[in-house]
Amino acid sequence: MSTLGSLFVREMRLAIRVGGGAWMGVLFFLCVIVVVPFGIGPDLNLLSRIGPAILWIGALLASLLGLDRLFQADRDDGSLDLLLMGDTPLELVVLTKCLAHWAASGLPLVISAPVFSLFLNMDPLATAALTATLVAGTPALTLIGGIGAALTVSLRRGGLLLAILVLPLTIPVLIFGVSAANAALDYSLPFATPFAILCALTLISAVVGPFAAAAALRFSSD
Amino acid sequence: MALIDLANPTRFLRLTDRLLPWLVGATVVTMVAGLYLSLYASPEDYQQGATVRIMYIHVPFAWLAMFAYTVMALASLGTLVWKHPLSDVSAKAAAPIGAAFTFLCLVTGSLWGKPMWGTWWVWDARLTSVLVLFIMYLGIIALWRTIEDPIRAGKAVAVLTLVGYLNVPIIKFSVDWWNTLHQPASIMRMDGPSMPPSMLVPLLVMALAFTFLFMTLHFMTMRSEILRRRIRTMRQREASGAAGVATATTGARPGPAHSDTKPAEAHS
Amino acid sequence: MAMTRKQRRLSMIGGAGAVLAVAAGLILYALKDEIVFFQSPSDVAEHTVPHGQRIRLGGLVKDGSIDRQGETVRFVVTDGAADLSATYTGILPDLFREGQGVVAEGTVGNDGIFHADTVLAKHDENYMPKEVVEALKARGEWQMGADNPAAKGAPAADKTSQAETPSAPASRTN
C-alpha cells in the first residue's frame, strides 16, 4: 500500500511545515498546565494527587485543537475530491490521515507530558504510568475526533461544534486513562484493568472512527 | 415533479391527522389515571416513605429518554440504508423531545437523590452516562441547526446518532457492570420485577402515558417539520424560479405505497 | 495491487473484525476484575490503606452499631467478612439506618477509625408498601434479606460486597 505510505508522508510534511506545526499543540498543553495551579492554588500535595487528571484534560483539549482542519484543508484545495474518487478505500485513507495527525500532534504531547509532570509534583512512577496511558489513549482521541472533523467538514466555523460533538464521546477514554494513571498514586487500585479497557477503546475507535468518518465525508460530498 | 415527490409525506400528514386526536385522548386518559394511581392510590414505600412517588415519573422519563434515542438511531438507519424520505424528519423531531425527557429524568432523579442518598449529584456510572446522553442530544440538535441543507444535515446527524448509540447499552447495564450508587434495575430483570403489583401497576400506567405523550409530541413535531420544509421549498422556488425545484425538495422519492406507514410502526 | 476492489473491501472488513475481536478480548480480560465505585471494609483491611489517604468505603451499617451523640454519629460498616468503625458529623440521608447499604467518603485516621466527611445511603432495587412490611413485622414474618420473597437479593450491597471479596486478591496481583 504505497499510496497510503505517501499519503502519510504528505500529511506529516504538511503538519510540520504549516502554521507552527506540532509545537502549537504542545504550547497550548503547557498553557493549560500552567493555568491550573493558578486556579486551584499552588498546593503541591493536591497538585500531585490530581496531576494525572490535569495532564489528561490538557492532552484532551490540545488534541482537539487542530482537528477542524483535518479534512477541511483537503476540501478547500480540492484534494478531498481526489481521495474520495480514488481507488484506495476511504476508510483506510481516513485511518492513515488520523494516524499521521496523531504522529504530528498527539505524539509531541505524549513526549512533553513527562516534562510537564514535574510542574505538578508527580513522582517518577506516576509519570511513567501517565505516559503509558497517554500513548495508549491519545490515538483514540484523534480517531474519535476524526468523526467530528468529517461531520463538520463543510462548515465554515465548525471548530466549536466539533468540540461539543466530540467531547462527550471521549469521556470513556478520559475515565479509564485517568483511573489507570491514578493506580500509580494509590496502590490499592488496579492498573491493568483500566489500562486494558483503555487499549480496547483505542482499538474500537480505530474501527468505528474511520468507518463513521468515511461515511460522513461521502455524504457531505454528494 | 415536486408534487409527486411530496406524495409520501402527504400521506403521512393525512394518516397522523386522523391518528392524533386518538393519541391525545389516550395520553390524557392514561396520564390522569397514572397520576391518580401513583400520587394518591399507591402505598408508601417501607423505606422511602412518600418520596417513592418521584419514582413514578423519574423512571418513565428515563425509559423514554432511551426510547427516543433508539427511535433516532432506527431513523438514522432509515436515512442511511433504506433512504426512507420521512426518517430524517422523524430523527429531527425526536431530538428535542428526547433531550427534554433526559433533562427531566436528571432533575427528578436529583430531587429524589438529595433526601434519599444525601446528595443532589454523584459521579457514578449511571448518572454520568445519562448526562452524556443529554449532552449528545444537545450536540445532535446543534448539528441539525448548523448545517443548513436538511438532506445533508440529516445524513451527518445520522452518522453521529449511530456512533452515539453505543452509550445506550452502557446506560442500561452500567448498574450491573459497576458498583454504582444508583440501584440496579427493578422491573426489567431476569427473575421478574422486585416490586409489588400495588406499585408496579401505577408505574406501568405512567410509562404507557409517557409513551403516548412521546408519540403525540413526536407526530406533531414531524408534521410541523414537514410543513416547514414545504414552506422552505416554496420560498426557494419562488426565489429562483424553476431552477430551484430540483434541489429544494424534501428528499422525498416516490416509494411503494406501504412504506409510508413504516415510521408509524417504528415509533409505536 | 493485484487485489480487486471487492477483495480489498473484504480484507478491510476482515481486518476491522480482527481488531474488534482483540478489543473484545481485552475487555473480557478486564472484566474479571471489577471496577469499583467504592471499597469494602475487607479491601481496606487487606490493603492497609495509608492514614490520611482518601477512600470511598462501601458496605452495610452493622445492626445495633449506630451511636448518636448530638450531631456526631458513630457506626460500624461491615461486608460480612470485615468490620470498620466509622464516625461522621452532619446531617445523614433519610435512608441511613441499620442494615442499609452505605457509601462513605473520608480517611482512615491513626486510631483506625474511618472519619467520613460525606455519607451517602445506597438504596436497593426493592420496593414494598409500608403497610405490608408493618403487617409482616407484626406477625413476626419480616426478615431483611432472608427467605422473604419480597426482599430477595436485598440488601444489594450484600451481594456486591461478596462478589468483590474474591476479586480483591486479583487486583493486588496487577
TrEMBL record, chain A:
Key words of the record: Cell inner membrane, Cell membrane, Cytochrome c-type biogenesis, Membrane, Transmembrane, Transmembrane helix, Transport
Membrane topology: Multi-pass membrane protein
Location of this chain's protein in the cell: Cell inner membrane
Pfam families: CcmB
Keyword Transmembrane: yes
Transmembrane domains' residue ranges: 21-41, 53-71, 92-116, 128-153, 160-185, 191-217
Keyword flag Transmembrane: yes
Highest rank taxon of the organism: Bacteria
GO molecular function list: heme transmembrane transporter activity
InterPro entries membership: Cyt_c_biogenesis_CcmB, Cyt_c_CcmB_bac
GO cellular component: plasma membrane
Annotated GO biological process: cytochrome c biosynthetic process; cytochrome complex assembly
Chain's role: Required for the export of heme to the periplasm for the biogenesis of c-type cytochromes.
UniProt similarity note: Belongs to the CcmB/CycW/HelB family.
Protein known as: Heme exporter protein B
Automatic annotation (TrEMBL), chain B:
Keywords annotated in UniProt: Cell inner membrane, Cell membrane, Cytochrome c-type biogenesis, Membrane, Transmembrane, Transmembrane helix, Transport
Biased composition (Basic and acidic residues): 259-268
Record's keyword annotation contains Ion transport: no
Locations listed in the record: Cell inner membrane; Membrane
Any one annotated GO CC term: plasma membrane
Biological process according to GO: cytochrome complex assembly
Membrane topology per record: Multi-pass membrane protein
Transmembrane residue ranges: 20-41, 61-82, 94-113, 125-144, 156-179, 199-220
Region (Disordered): 238-268
A Pfam family reported for this protein in Swiss-Prot or TrEMBL: Cytochrom_C_asm
Sequence ranges of Low complexity compositional bias: 239-252
InterPro entries: Cyt_c_assembly, Cyt_c_biogenesis_CcmC, Cyt_c_biogenesis_CcsA/CcmC
Entries under NCBIfam families matching the protein: ccmC
Homology family: Belongs to the CcmC/CycZ/HelC family.
Protein purpose: Required for the export of heme to the periplasm for the biogenesis of c-type cytochromes.
Name of the protein in its database record: Heme exporter protein C
Lineage: Bacteria, Pseudomonadati, Pseudomonadota, Alphaproteobacteria, Hyphomicrobiales
UniProtKB/TrEMBL annotation, chain C:
Extracellular side, ranges: 31-174
GO molecular function: heme binding; metal ion binding
Name of a matching Pfam family: CcmE
Annotated stretches, region: Disordered: 143-174
Compartment(s): Cell membrane; Membrane
Gene Ontology biological-process annotations: cytochrome complex assembly; protein-heme linkage
Domain of life: Bacteria
Low complexity biased stretches: 145-159
Keywords: Cell membrane, Cytochrome c-type biogenesis, Heme, Iron, Membrane, Metal-binding, Signal-anchor, Transmembrane, Transmembrane helix
Keyword Hydrolase in record: no
Record family assignment: Belongs to the CcmE/CycJ family.
Protein name: Cytochrome c-type biogenesis protein CcmE
Organism: Breoghania corrubedonensis
Gene: ccmE
